[in-house]
Write a structure and sequence with these properties.
- The protein is an alpha+beta fold and 195 residues long.
- Helices cover 22% and strands 21% of the residues.
- The protein has four helices and twelve strands; from the N terminus they run αββββββββββββααα.
- A hairpin with a 2-residue loop joins β1 and β2.
- The termini are far apart.
Length: 195
């Protein structure tokens, strides 16, 4: 009676050949057999998705690879662009946090800050833009760098207006000797919106 279980085991093993033993991708198969999962085939004695298909998270379906960023998806595995994932509600591949989509939708580029490398304007954050000639994020428009940030009103925020009463003689003497200082002070006041 010792031979019975061996014979039974051999028969059960033979019946399972050619179909994925557990019906999921990644299970053993026979090269001349077929796999149970739709759009899968036996490759190197393992059930795998055919062509460009990718296995689902539970390994029970073959899903098509998404057509790049903004392509339709059901699961993250379909989004093959590095640093992308499947957005749950829109069912589109998008860049993960900390990355932005390139204009041509082909790659996810890292978000850059002032002085950091960039290829496109969308990468630059915090009032910066990408300088094509420098390849780094620089302050946008009339803003300028101060203390590691882009500012537009540094002077008006840090200057105080002090009103001093001066006699006409002292005032003309001050004007004659410090004409350049007065011009700077007036420019700061105009920039600050004081009239």
């Amino acid at each position: 009676m010792r031979g019975g279980p061996y014979l039974l085991l051999l028969v059960a093993g033979t019946l399972g050949v050619g179909r994925g033993l557990d019906g999921q991708l990644g299970s053993p198969c026979h090269p001349s057999g077929r796999c149970n999962v739709r759009f899968s085939e036996c490759q190197d004695n393992i059930c795998r998705c055919s062509g460009t298909g990718v296995p689902s998270a539970y390994n029970n379906r073959c899903l098509p690879v998404a057509d790049g960023l903004k392509g339709y998806c059901e699961e993250n595995v379909q989004c093959t662009v590095p640093h992308s994932h499947c957005r749950r509600f829109s069912k589109e591949c998008e860049c993960v946090e900390g990355y932005v989509m390139a204009r041509d939708r082909s790659v996810c580029l890292p978000v850059s800050r002032l002085g950091e490398p960039c290829l496109e304007r969308a990468q630059c954050k915090e009032s910066t833009e990408c300088s094509p000639s420098l390849g780094v994020c620089v302050c946008r428009g009339i803003s300028y760098e101060y203390d590691g940030k882009c500012v537009t009103d540094h002077i008006s925020n840090n200057w105080e207006l002090t009103v001093v009463t001066v006699s006409p003689a002292a005032g003309s003497q001050l004007l004659a000797h410090n004409r350049w200082l007065l011009c700077i002070a007036l420019a700061a006041l105009v920039h600050a919106g004081v009239r």
